[in-house]
Amino acid sequence: MRAVAIATCLLVGGAGATGAPAPEIAWDIVDVRPHDPAAYTQGLVAHRGALLESTGDCCDPRRSDSSLRRLNARTGRVLVRRDIAAPIFAEGITVLRGSAWQLTWKDRVAYRVNPRSLRRVGVRPYPREGWGLTTDGRRLIASDGTARLRWLDAPGLEVRRTVVVRDGARPIRRLNELEWIRGLIWANVWLDDRIALIAPRTGRVRAWLDMSSLRDRIGNGGETLNGIARDPITGHVIVTGKHWDRMFVIRLRQPVPATR
């Protein structure tokens, strides 16, 4: 991301909520796999044994590195790639009811895509910045760089619910890539090597994962942590980052603390 829109809205139904900050919980590396270091990862999601990856980084208006890719989940090899013409800056990706949805950063559109061929089958207006995207199986869930998450109907993309994410009383801004895993929303925070595990009903952060130790295992060109997906091979979780040359399969070493 290049800019951050700061939200000052209160949590719906929970204004003035307080509490202790969420704890960090331990995790282990299960596997290390290759990842294209040229990929400026904006979104990652599993689909039928493979990974879909959305990439961005459109810095020169005459060209674009934005793309949608289908990857071999074990080797990181690009199986299918669809480039997105400049000046579009692609963002989060998820799959809901057989369609892939891909956001754009400031271009005010969202793309509906065939998740196998990656061919575009529709375009919808999107009246805000697009950052991360996931689904609870019924609706899309989107971030916009603030502390707010929105639940959207598809295919119309109407907002049906919002929540502000907080750790204790503190709003957590710069929410980026999202993934729904076992009833929690896992969220990257732009420019932070931590992942927030969020209760979707309340927006409260239940736990943090400190991923900073992964920097010792990647090349020097790696930028911020960004990219979370359920691993279609092991059922654990894959994490990566912008221009990272590795993907890491991780598992939690302890249960996520109960709602506080």
3D architecture notes:
There is one protein chain. With 260 residues, the protein is mostly beta strands. The chain has one domain: TolB, C-terminal domain (Neuraminidase), CATH 2.120.10.30. Helix content is 0%, strand content 47%. It has no helices and 22 strands. The protein has strands at residues 27-34, 41-47, 50-55, 67-72, 78-83, 90-96, 99-104, 109-113, 120-125, 133-135, 140-143, 148-152, 159-164, 166-167, 170-171, 175-181, 184-189, 192-198, 205-210, 225-230, 237-241, 246-252. The strands form 6 sheets. The chain has a 4-stranded antiparallel sheet with strand order 1-22-21-20, with no helix packed on it. The chain has a 4-stranded antiparallel sheet with strand order 2-3-4-5, with no helix packed on it. Strands 6-7-8-9 form a 4-stranded antiparallel sheet, with no helix packed on it. β21 and β22 (246-252) form a beta hairpin. It is globular and about 45 Å long. The two termini are 31 Å apart.
